[in-house]
């Protein structure tokens, strides 16, 4: 099994002409996974040997802008490079992250009228009270409205330490 990691951005929240916001791609046996997607990630992908359309999983570590503001734009760019042929069975892009990520994507894609040519599913990790004290949790409401047209139902993932 071969594996390689490409660092697309290692900078912090402060923009720099020499360091992109947080993003890296892990490639292993044909799979391409993106970890974080700060602003400028799609530009950094274009400068690399990687193809954004090969990304099948995205993992967002937390909901700070320097880790996720590039995600809606990246999804739209991948869509622009996809075939509009309905016969083509495009793979679903699985997106994993903290509670609130699904809402962020629905609102952003909805407000911009963005239509993707491929399905995606957001899977939110919801901490249990013993993993994250109540004072550390933001008061986010769960998104139960209609799915975005290309959105597939995702999961809410709760870690159970006793079953792990």
UniProtKB/TrEMBL annotation:
It holds the Pfam family Anti-Pycsar_Apyc1. It comes from the Eukaryota. One of its GO terms (cellular component) is nucleus. One of its GO terms (molecular function) is 3'-tRNA processing endoribonuclease activity. InterPro entries: RibonucZ/Hydroxyglut_hydro. SUPFAM superfamilies: Metallo-hydrolase/oxidoreductase. Signal peptide: none annotated. Residues 131-164 are annotated as: Disordered. PANTHER family: ZINC PHOSPHODIESTERASE ELAC PROTEIN 1 (PTHR46018:SF2). This is Uncharacterized protein. It comes from Oryzias javanicus. The lineage of its organism: Eukaryota, Metazoa, Chordata, Craniata, Vertebrata.
């Amino acid at each position: 099994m071969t594996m390689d990691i490409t660092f697309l951005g290692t900078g912090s929240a402060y923009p720099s002409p020499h360091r992109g916001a947080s993003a890296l791609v892990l490639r292993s046996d044909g799979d391409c996974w993106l970890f974080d997607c700060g602003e400028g990630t799609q530009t950094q992908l274009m400068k690399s040997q990687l193809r954004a359309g090969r990304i099948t999983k995205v993992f967002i570590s937390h909901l700070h802008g320097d880790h996720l503001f590039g995600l809606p734009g990246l999804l739209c760019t991948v869509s622009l490079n996809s075939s509009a042929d309905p016969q083509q069975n495009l793979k679903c892009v699985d997106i994993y992250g903290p509670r609130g990520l699904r809402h962020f994507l629905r609102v952003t894609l909805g407000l911009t009228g963005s239509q993707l040519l491929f399905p995606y599913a957001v899977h939110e990790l919801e901490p249990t009270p013993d993993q994250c004290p109540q004072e550390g949790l933001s008061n986010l409401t769960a998104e139960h409205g209609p799915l975005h047209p290309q959105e597939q139902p995702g999961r809410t993932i709760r870690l159970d330490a006793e079953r792990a």
